[in-house]
Amino acid sequence: MALSRNEITNAALRILRKYGFADLSMRRIAADLEVQPSALYWHVHNKQELLVLTATAILEHCRGEDLPQLARSIRAALSSVRDGADVALIAVAASPEPLPGLAQIPPLLRGFGLSDQDAEWGAKTLEHHILAAVAAEQNAEALGRDVDPLAPEAFDFGVRAILKGLGAERGVVDEPVLF
Amino acid sequence: MALSRNEITNAALRILRKYGFADLSMRRIAADLEVQPSALYWHVHNKQELLVLTATAILEHCRGEDLPQLARSIRAALSSVRDGADVALIAVAASPEPLPGLAQIPPLLRGFGLSDQDAEWGAKTLEHHILAAVAAEQNAEALGRDVDPLAPEAFDFGVRAILKGLGAERGVVDEPVLF
DNA sequence: ACCTGAACACCGTTCAAGT
DNA sequence: ACCTGAACACCGTTCAAGT
């Protein structure tokens, strides 16, 4: 059975779950697939592209009716894979096109009357909070620091603050239309 | 003249400025200092510690009377070194104690009447936006993507949105006390 | 105290050659 | 088309040994 981008991505996810990002090397993935490292390069341009594929797989199937819900869905998806947020952070830095899940943020913001510009900038702010907050949680865990039991509250607090602020930009803060 | 943590940190900053984060290796720093790589380990525990020292040096001398000012000061400091935001992102992940500059955020938030909990969480949200936004700008530049001329506006937009949202949490959004 | 020299166990990536 | 084998140019870190 020939190798494929999908199998390679799944191998990456396996290594991530079991050993974390520090152990996610092309050579390790190849070993996991019982293949020479160079074989991977017929299917994938380089490690960066593979990380984008991996982050895309992690964030597939994220959805939410409203933004707080979507944000929690993204947090859950990232949290389901060890160091998932770090991989996503690198993927958004490497890829010009938005990752699934994150791509749903701007339309939801526009749906509440934000201009294209405000929705774009607001989406970035939200995205930064989501990715960095989960990365901080996961890094704390990786370093053996005890996990903050209030992490979900802290996460939601940030999401709500940003959404309120984006509403406030347009003077609609009194009626909580955004959530 | 014996080696020192300061000289090592400065060598790291030189390499960062000239060649960027991808070229910032212990071996490269050692070569720059005309010293064996192993010599560095007498002064520094490992690369992570050196990155924390480097980020600390980058963010030294950040100040601002209010939060939008402080945020711009941090942005300027990070922007002054190639891939500075990436280094800071790794440093905050690695170090339990806050970096200079970022450490000034919570007291400023408390100064406007936020509870300790709200100030702490709000500071994280602000910190995530600041670091991730500058990292995105710098990564876009590194990838040869044309720099967005509106980047400063986008940055300020996010800062203001978060501050308004934090104010809104306490019902003080009508009077713009935070800035 | 401070550094060298040599080694260990890795990396990502390329590319001719095989099938 | 798809993969192997071998190589290139690197990594971070350790540690005995020198001074």
TrEMBL record, chains A, B:
Swiss-Prot/TrEMBL GO biological process terms: negative regulation of DNA-templated transcription
Superkingdom: Bacteria
The keyword Membrane belongs to this UniProt entry's keyword annotation: no
Annotated HTH tetR-type domain residues: 2-62
Matching InterPro entries: Homeodomain-like_sf, HTH-type_TetR-like_transc_reg, HTH_TetR, Repressor_TetR_C, Tet_transcr_reg_TetR-rel_C_sf
Matches recorded under Pfam families: TetR_C_1 (PF02909), TetR_N (PF00440)
Residue ranges of DNA binding: 25-44
PROSITE patterns on file: HTH_TETR_2
SUPFAM superfamilies noted in UniProt: Homeodomain-like (SSF46689), Tetracyclin repressor-like, C-terminal domain (SSF48498)
UniProt keywords, alphabetically: DNA-binding, Transcription, Transcription regulation
GO molecular function: DNA-binding transcription factor activity; transcription cis-regulatory region binding
UniProt-recorded name of the protein: AcrR family transcriptional regulator
